[in-house]
Amino acid sequence: MILTVTLACVIALIFGASGVLNALALPKARELAAEVGFSVAAYRRIGVLQLVGVAGVVLGLVMPPLGGLAGAGLLLLLAGAVVVHLRKGDPVAKIAPAILCAVLVAVYLAALFA
Question: What's the confidence (pLDDT) of residue 1?
Fold first, then answer.
């Protein structure tokens, strides 16, 4: 249980910060959206999905099925991020954060249902 709570907190911090950045379309988010060819509105929607995922992961500590669904949703967002990076021809260093976050979410899911 301690591992699950710790992972949920780490996920909440990472995706919460990114979600707020994107949902509020702060200058860095606008820069990143332009870099990958997304509209600011699309990046805002991604931010909202990240924040919904955070809420689901945290609530998943008391309602595991909800945490599972939220984790699956975050994995889908991360898969999309990897695809975008690969299409752009980004180096591994730019893809690595999405892959590491995917591993983190996968471990959370494994711990949640262990």
Answer: 87
